[in-house]
Amino acid sequence: MKVGIIGATGYGGLELIRLLHNHSKVESITLFTSSDEGALFSAKYPHLKGLYDFPLEAITKEAIAKLDVVFTSTPSGVSGQLLPDVANAHTTFIDLSGDLRLKDIADYETWYHKKPAPQAFVDKAMYGLAEWQDTTGAKVIANPGCYPTAVLLSLLPLLKENLIDGSQLIIDAKSGISGSGNKPSQGTHFTENTEATSIYKVNKHQHIPEIEQAIAMYAGESYPITFSTHLVPMIRGIIATSYAPLKDGVTETDLYAAYDKYYAQKPFVRVLQDATRVSTNQVRGTNFCDIHVNVDARTNRVTIVSVIDNLVKGAAGQAIQNMNLLFGYDETEGLTQVPIFI
Ligand SMILES: NC(=O)C1=CN([C@@H]2O[C@H](COP(=O)(O)OP(=O)(O)OC[C@H]3O[C@@H](n4cnc5c(N)ncnc54)[C@H](OP(=O)(O)O)[C@@H]3O)[C@@H](O)[C@H]2O)C=CC1
Ligand SMILES: CC(=O)N[C@@H](CCC(=O)OP(=O)(O)O)C(=O)O
């Protein structure tokens, strides 16, 4: 398999390289750039010296047509404009950005404030929440956002089995700073984050419509959600904690049975009954999503928590999992890393 990465110099791109490097089906990786054609990749990133001592390539239709799979790991507003121009009958595209996830391009414009991809191209893209979507036959996959991955994997079994009242959902999520990419900004500055935790994009986060759309798609329910995001002083990891009222007569055992029903055969979802071990360092560097639930009998509400590594299960890892599923490889190929616990 010949693969290419557009946005190879970014955090998602670097993570794709780290994981694809040990993928037994990958024969070559072409690294594309929009800004530094000809630069030696290992000179830009010396941790790759001796491993990727070759130059970055310009993004051309011809170069892309020679590849079996191209991952686009580019800022929002890029792949939605680029891919319709370079698409061909042979290459499969897996887009890590949000450009192709929202089915209605008017929603994309509202939440991303960017020019949307043509509706006809968005129509071709299949949302790739790997544990929930059969992507057979897809030529374009919209890889889910990092927060939606953590949130949806923990909520969907409970919503689908009608065990919780989703219309009252409140979701509180926190992310490491690598989630905002490699371009430094005031909001991600070391001095302003190292001893601080902050809320951002309050009630305006672009993942709100993505989560609502996926709940409608997979659980058949439509309502607005309350979803808040926070930056915490760590590099990788997302923890998402959700609260919802339990439906009448539902017990904690029923909740765990629902996870068992949907995830017993899924290699990357781990359901933990012991909350003392639900932490981002349990999954760091891996494609795992760990989930825990607890019923509060006093309030009749359930607390649902999940953790992922934003760069792996929330981006590059799930993208490779999608490639594996699409091409009929073992789902875990290239994704069997042990967590970097400390
Ligand atoms: N970081 C994360 O945890 C996650 C990120 N995502 C999404 O994945 C995408 C990539 O994220 P991330 O890697 O963090 O972002 P970065 O900002 O770290 O990297 C993006 C890369 O895209 C390339 N790029 C920029 N403009 C263009 C352009 N016009 N055409 C082609 N390439 C371009 C740049 O490389 P060059 O200048 O060499 O072309 C850059 O290195 C984003 O849409 C992000 O929202 C999704 C889930 C999680
Ligand atoms: C910590 C942090 O800033 N995270 C980013 C996640 C980016 C992302 O995954 O967004 P799209 O793929 O939908 O563009 C954010 O909250 O916007």
Automatic annotation (TrEMBL):
<comment type="pathway">
    <text>Amino-acid biosynthesis; L-arginine biosynthesis; N(2)-acetyl-L-ornithine from L-glutamate: step 3/4.</text>
</comment>
<feature type="active site">
    <location>
        <position position="146"/>
    </location>
</feature>
<dbReference type="GO" id="GO:0070401">
    <property type="term" value="F:NADP+ binding"/>
</dbReference>
<dbReference type="Pfam" id="PF01118">
    <property type="entry name" value="Semialdhyde_dh"/>
</dbReference>
<dbReference type="InterPro" id="IPR058924">
    <property type="entry name" value="AGPR_dimerisation_dom"/>
</dbReference>
<keyword id="KW-0521">NADP</keyword>
<protein>
    <recommendedName>
        <fullName>N-acetyl-gamma-glutamyl-phosphate reductase</fullName>
        <ecNumber>1.2.1.38</ecNumber>
    </recommendedName>
</protein>
<dbReference type="GO" id="GO:0006526">
    <property type="term" value="P:L-arginine biosynthetic process"/>
</dbReference>
<dbReference type="GO" id="GO:0003942">
    <property type="term" value="F:N-acetyl-gamma-glutamyl-phosphate reductase activity"/>
</dbReference>
<keyword id="KW-0055">Arginine biosynthesis</keyword>
<keyword id="KW-0028">Amino-acid biosynthesis</keyword>
<keyword id="KW-0963">Cytoplasm</keyword>
<dbReference type="Pfam" id="PF22698">
    <property type="entry name" value="Semialdhyde_dhC_1"/>
</dbReference>
<dbReference type="InterPro" id="IPR036291">
    <property type="entry name" value="NAD(P)-bd_dom_sf"/>
</dbReference>
<dbReference type="InterPro" id="IPR000534">
    <property type="entry name" value="Semialdehyde_DH_NAD-bd"/>
</dbReference>
<dbReference type="GO" id="GO:0051287">
    <property type="term" value="F:NAD binding"/>
</dbReference>
<dbReference type="GO" id="GO:0005737">
    <property type="term" value="C:cytoplasm"/>
</dbReference>
<comment type="function">
    <text>Catalyzes the NADPH-dependent reduction of N-acetyl-5-glutamyl phosphate to yield N-acetyl-L-glutamate 5-semialdehyde.</text>
</comment>
<comment type="similarity">
    <text>Belongs to the NAGSA dehydrogenase family. Type 1 subfamily.</text>
</comment>
<keyword id="KW-0560">Oxidoreductase</keyword>
<dbReference type="InterPro" id="IPR050085">
    <property type="entry name" value="AGPR"/>
</dbReference>
<feature type="domain" description="Semialdehyde dehydrogenase NAD-binding">
    <location>
        <begin position="2"/>
        <end position="140"/>
    </location>
</feature>
<dbReference type="InterPro" id="IPR000706">
    <property type="entry name" value="AGPR_type-1"/>
</dbReference>
<dbReference type="InterPro" id="IPR023013">
    <property type="entry name" value="AGPR_AS"/>
</dbReference>
